[in-house]
Amino acid sequence: MDLIKFVEEQSVEKKQVPEFKSGDTVTVHYKIREGNKERVQLYQGVVIQRNSTGSTETFTVRKVSNGIGVERIFPVNSPNIDKIEVNSRGKVRRAKLFYLRALTGKAARIKSKRV
Fold this sequence. Notes:
- The protein contains one helix and five strands.
- By secondary structure, the chain is mainly beta.
- A five-stranded antiparallel sheet has the order 4-3-2-1-5, with no helix packed on it.
């Protein structure tokens, strides 16, 4: 079992990602292939969770688009992620912010952390 994890860790190249946690607002620059063309699309939202560790680590970003909540799961070490920008740090008291799904409008805001 440990040997399998070791081989996985070696095969996936670690990317340099900025330090962020749940509650932070991030912009993910994600490469999208359309036919033979490739473009970078920005996805900005609040990180509601970070899941797993090592090469299989993922994070979920939630944004509200046209009044509808949209969540997207990104692998941290994905080759399709161009870069991740941390826009603001959030002041939250838990690691998984699933309660944001039930909130709308001003109630869904997260206080920003003082630096």
